[in-house]
Each structure stands twice: as C-alpha cells, then as structure tokens.
Amino acid sequence: MKAFLAFLLLLAVGPATAQTVTSAQSKVAVIFSSATLQGNGADTTEDALSAYTGTVFLANVGDVVHFTARGVSLGSTDSKSIRLKLGGTTACTATNAAAGNTTWYFDCWILKTGSNTQSAWFFNNNATNNVASSLNSITVTDNVSLTVNVTAQNATAGTANSIQIQAGFAHYFPAQ
Predict the structure, then answer these.
(1) Could you state, in chain order, the average pLDDT of each consecutive group of 10 residues for the chain (176 residues)?
(2) Do the domain assignments include residue 20?
(3) Do 152 and 96 meet the contact criterion of CB atoms below 8 Å apart?
(4) Residue range(s) defining the domain that contains residue 135
(5) d(CA 112, CA 115)
(6) Is 157 helix (H, G, I), strand (E, B) or coil?
(7) Is residue 92 part of a domain?
(8) Distances (CA, A) of 59 to 46, 139, 147
(9) Is residue 3 part of a domain?
C-alpha cells in the first residue's frame, strides 16, 4: 500500500501570502495561510477579510480546494455572516446571530465536478455548538485563475470588527 504523506508548511508571516509549496509525493500544495487578526468595517455591507485573496486554477475534474478558517465575533444577536467565495460566488457560509456565538469555524471542500461546475461541501460550528452541514452546487467559470476570499457582513449594525478572522488555511489537491 502506497503511503500518503502530506507535509503542510504553515506560512504565518503576517498578512496572507500567495506562496505555493508543492510536495511531489502527495501532490498537495498549501496555497496560503494567515494568522493575522482582521475584521469587517464599520458598515452593514459585505467586506473582504484580509485573511486571503489569491487565486487557484481548477484545471481537471476531481481537482479540490480545501479551506478552513476560524474567527471571533461580537457576542450579540446581530445577523453576522462569514462567506468563502470562489470566483465571486459563495461556496460556503457560517452565521452567528446568537448572543453566545462569540467564535466561528468552517471547513469547506470545493470539488470540480465538470466543466464550470463545482460542489462545495462544508460544515460550520460556533460557540453554542450549532453545527450545520451543507452541499452547494455552484457554477463558476473554472478554466481561468479564480479568486478565493473570505468575506464578513454584519447586516444589522455597522460595528467595525464585529466579525474577525484569526486564521485560515487553504490547500490544493490536484486530481489524481
């Protein structure tokens, strides 16, 4: 049985980087990491978090991007949403709208299933242990480099830093 080894190089070098590190054995690449705390603006619009804005290229059916992120949010009943976007299309979402929801986490897998079609499977969790699992079908033109970014929106109150990201990691797995 062929051993599978994946070495993840954590690039905690301040603001997110778009560095690529590839392991020839596992065909896994860490496409970014960040441990810099960044938050939303003092408005009710959707804001890009500085955790990562970079590109991936889903060339073949079976290519996968795996993204995990964790952060904190204001302990209020404001309607707060954190979204992972691929090429401007929401793939995965976490919400925090309960006063006890002071942390959030999501784990999102995006799989190229066909030409310009992807499936995004994810689960999210918050401090009150509300866990949601979902499968989204998305259609993003994927024969070009795609922007991957995390956004945050407090749709109730224009409170700066009411949603913050503490860390995020993305990995690219090419089809075998």
Answers:
(1) 28 35 47 75 90 73 91 92 91 88 91 96 84 88 85 95 88 86
(2) no
(3) no
(4) 26-173
(5) 8
(6) coil
(7) yes
(8) 29, 14, 14
(9) no
CB atoms within 10 A of CB 14: 9
Contact (Cβ atoms closer than 8 angstroms) between residue 152 and residue 47:
yes
Which residues fall within 8 angstroms of residue 2, CB to CB, at 6 or more apart? Answer: none
Sheet holding 80-86, edge to edge: 47-56, 146-154, 80-86, 89-96
The answer to whether residue 21 is domain-embedded is no
- Tell me the pTM: 0.79
Locus of tokens 């051993």? 3
CATH of the domain at 60: 2.60.120
Parallel, antiparallel or unpaired: strands 47-56 and 80-86: unpaired
Number of domains the chain contains: 1
80-86/146-154 β-pairing? antiparallel
pLDDT value of residue 27: 52
Q: Are 72 and 166 in contact (CB under 8 A)?
A: yes
Q: Of how many residues is the chain composed?
A: 176
User: 24: alpha, beta or left, given left = phi > 0 and alpha = psi -120 to 50?
Assistant: alpha
User: Do β-strands 80-86 and 89-96 pair in parallel, antiparallel, or remain unpaired?
Assistant: antiparallel
